[in-house]
Amino acid sequence: MQLRGSAIVCATRPHGETAAIARLLTEEGGLVGAYVAGGRGRQLRPVLIPGNLVEADLRSKSEGQLPFARIELVESRGPWLSEPLHSAGIAWVTALAAAALPERQPFPALYQALAAVLDAICAAPSARGWVMPLLSFEVLLLRELGYGVPVGRPADDDWGAILATFDRLGPELARYPLAERRGDVMGARVLLRERLARIHG
């Protein structure tokens, strides 16, 4: 495997004393797990934050081998992680992608949609500007994975209907793409819902 291009960091976990395993969503190669030497060190730890956009050079000698990754930061989401609502939104969409998508199966539309949601979370003045793109990403993910869910699009200015749609999609995500992992992953969505509820219609 040899792949170089933009990637979105979706999840990381420690590996050994200093390395990390990163799950990266790429447009061409889909979701790829990769070994990052020094991933827990001072230089790379802030680069491997879920939501960050990176330039990744992925290489492995065989298809079954975990690729090695060289990572360079392109855009950081770190400044928004101190904001509870922004942080919850970023945590949820990246956790969903990391848990639901199969390894090394390209979903270019989902890559583009996730990048757009993350941009919206960081650019919009309030959650009202990015909750609809987030819901659209969830619906697209369900459809791309073969779970067509008939969900109507609420009006952009109807906060009650938007939250109702949010609640309607939750069980579908738990039942289908997250059926085996819903406990730990859906917790991020529950936290996001609690914070969205504090916004008055």
Automatic annotation (TrEMBL):
Record carries keyword Acetylation: no
Keywords, sorted A to Z: DNA damage, DNA recombination, DNA repair
A Pfam match: RecO_N
Residue ranges annotated for the DNA replication/recombination mediator RecO N-terminal domain, each copy included: 1-75
Entry keyword Nucleotide-binding: no
Highest rank taxon of the organism: Bacteria
InterPro entries: ARFGAP/RecO, DNA_rep/recomb_RecO_N, NA-bd_OB-fold, RecO, RecO_C
Family: Belongs to the RecO family.
Protein name: DNA repair protein RecO
Species: Novosphingobium clariflavum
